[in-house]
From TrEMBL:
The keyword DNA-binding is annotated on this UniProt entry: yes
Keyword field: DNA-binding
Record carries keyword Cytoplasm: no
Annotated GO CC locations: cytosol
Pfam families the record matches: Rrf2 (PF02082)
UniProt protein name: Rrf2 family transcriptional regulator
């Protein structure tokens, strides 16, 4: 799995919108604050709208705002929706499995499966709200703390 500019820029836009709840932001402002071209943002925001993450308003004071609450936006879902499977290899993918002729005795598949599971574990437990509140923590020793919350987000 590789997150392309598409996934990165979409997350930048969602973070900006999440930091401005209820405020309609114009495409030019989003472009300036995320350092993404207006042309590319138009395509991304249209896709995010079709996926139900943002809503748009037309007119002189038009623009974009979040359609969902930040705690309802799961980063794993956003990445899958935009980038496809989280697995680094097709043979380890759950959603887009691709058979391999060497799979029967493959000693790499357990590694790719672990990588997939680890990526999924982190992304699926992270919401936009977690990003906005800087709840992402680093690995320390044997501790695997991904998101520090005082309580579970609603909808989980």
């Amino acid at each position: 799995m590789k997150v392309s500019s598409k996934g990165e820029y979409a997350l930048r836009a969602l973070i900006l919108l999440g930091n401005n709840p209820g405020k309609v932001l114009g495409i030019q402002e989003i472009s300036e604050k995320t350092l993404v071209s207006v042309h590319y943002l138009e395509q991304l925001l249209l896709q995010l709208k079709k996926l139900g993450y943002v809503t748009s308003k037309r007119g002189a004071k038009g623009g974009y705002t979040l359609h969902l609450q930040a705690e309802e936006i799961n980063i794993g879902e956003v990445i899958r929706d935009l980038e496809g499977p989280l697995s680094p290899m097709g043979c380890a993918s759950i959603t887009k499995y691709e058979p391999c002729p060497l799979e029967g005795g493959c000693q790499l598949k357990p590694l790719w499966t672990l990588v997939r599971d680890t990526i999924a574990y982190v992304l699926e437990r992270t919401t936009l709200e977690d990003l906005l509140q800087n709840r992402i923590t680093k690995l320390e020793g044997d501790d695997f703390v991904v998101v520090k919350r005082t309580s579970r987000p609603t909808g989980s």
